[in-house]
Write a structure and sequence with these properties.
The chain folds into 2 domains: 86 residues, Rossmann fold, CATH 3.40.50; 108 residues, Hexapeptide repeat proteins (UDP N-Acetylglucosamine Acyltransferase, domain 1). The chain has 4 helices and 24 strands. Strand 1, helix 1 and strand 2 form a beta-alpha-beta unit. The chain is globular. The mean pLDDT is 97.
Length: 224
């Protein structure tokens, strides 16, 4: 029996989440939800589009799961905020793992993850909660990807690495063995990270060097 799923979001990430969940999982998407300030229509993908604030009344947490389908805006903090709201409401979050990804049997994957086709996750890899791995990445053995990370496409994370919370890694980048990428990093496309990085930094180039502008400022993250 399929599991009933509510997708949070009504943009391109939600559109793709619907496509993947409906055609490559045992989930049945029954509705979408966005915060009332952003809801302009009553339907999305021919399914109900409701106010996020009404989700617990219309779709109780004991009967439905949720997937937060937001991308990497503001260094993933937008997605993180909504994910945390959903968890405070008591919902369980679904993860999508493509049938065309290679996932070794002892890999650990958290909830609200979106792992697309042609990803390779080697032995003993750990993926936190609310992580997006776009298409075609390699996550090397014993590496840890922490919560709220977005790894785009064709990224190589070598063995025994760690990627910190809320970090974004751009297309065609790579991280050398035994390197720790700090939290709140923005790694530009095609960058080579060959040593540990510092928190809240932008890294670009080969070898990658830190920019003077903090990553949170560059990505317009509101500092509380």
């Amino acid at each position: 029996m399929s599991k009933r799923l509510i997708i949070i979001g009504a943009g391109e990430t939600a559109n793709l989440a619907h496509e993947y969940f409906m055609n490559d999982s045992d989930y049945d998407v029954v509705a979408f939800a966005v915060h009332s300030d952003y809801r302009k229509e009553d339907y999305f993908k021919n399914l109900p589009l409701i106010d996020f604030e009404k989700i617990s009344v219309l779709y109780p947490k004991d009967d439905f799961l949720v997937f937060v389908a937001l991308a990497s805006e503001k260094l993933n903090y937008n997605r993180t905020k909504v994910y945390q709201e959903v968890k405070k409401m008591g919902y369980k979050c679904a993860s999508y793992v493509s049938s065309r990804a290679f996932i070794w049997h002892n890999v650990k994957i958290g909830e609200n993850c979106f792992i697309l086709e042609n990803n390779t996750l080697q032995p003993f890899v750990e993926i936190g909660n609310n992580v997006i791995l776009w298409s075609g990445n390699h996550i090397g053995h014993q590496s840890v990807i922490k919560d709220n990370v977005f790894i785009s496409s064709h990224v190589v994370i070598s063995g025994f690495c760690e990627v910190g919370e809320n970090t974004f890694i751009g297309v065609n980048s790579c991280v050398a063995d035994n390197v720790k990428v700090a939290k709140d990093n923005f790694v530009g496309l095609g960058s080579v990270i060959n040593k540990d990085t510092e928190e809240n930094k932008i890294y670009r180039g080969n070898p990658a060097e830190a920019s003077k502008i903090p990553a949170k400022k560059f990505c317009k993250v509101e500092v509380n």
